[in-house]
Design brief:
The complex is a heterodimer of chains A (116) and B (115). Helix content of chain A is 0%, strand content 52%. Chain A is an all-beta fold and 116 residues long. In chain A, a hairpin with an 8-residue loop joins strand 10 and strand 11. Chain A is globular and about 40 Å long. In chain B, the strands form 2 sheets. In chain B, strands 2, 4, 5, 8, 9 and 10 form a 6-stranded mixed beta sheet that branches. Chain B is mainly β and 115 residues long. The chains are: A mainly beta (116), B mainly beta (115).
Amino acid sequence: AQTVTQSQPEMSVQEAETVTLSCTYDTSESDYYLFWYKQPPSRQMILVIRQEAYKQQNATENRFSVNFQKAAKSFSLKISDSQLGDAAMYFCAYTPLGGGSEKLVFGKGTKLTVNP
Amino acid sequence: GAGVSQSPSNKVTEKGKDVELRCDPISGHTALYWYRQRLGQGLEFLIYFQGNSAPDKSGLPSDRFSAERTGESVSTLTIQRTQQEDSAVYLCASSAGLAAHNEQFFGPGTRLTVL
């Protein structure tokens, strides 16, 4: 079964600094997608960034970037120039490509605190 | 256009009662998903619908849970004879199709509390 592990229950960062959130996953599939979702206190899940496993280039979205290491099954999220609005729960998620329902498998999340 | 909406926002019920949770997906989205999020946990997949295909119910935790969807519109998740362990936030998501590259857009969820 596919699993997603986030080993950091909580992280904190100073405003304007950089923070990296860790995620590892387990799968026997060769083609899949990986995602980072942000969940603020409003509960609404917001897609931050996604990576297609067959693309070697790491995805980047403005201040958010990933370090995707396929062989190591690692998918970390780097947030640069952290802002107070980045404070939230962050979830790493996985879905196989073409496997059927494309349901997302989530990690347990990392709570990010941004200190002014 | 409008995003995914869910109602009610919060629901408090007594153990043993039945509850219905509603999800209105984004118009035109053929795929609809239900997830459960227990306190301090990630999301657990419950069920998905895609057009007129048979739903994938593989994530439903027991036969007390069921869901329906009318065409490509509203979906309801029903929990019968609720238990305290059913207390969680229930999130609905929709996407333009089943392929993994279609982003799932989430609603704000329904927080269910079973007393």
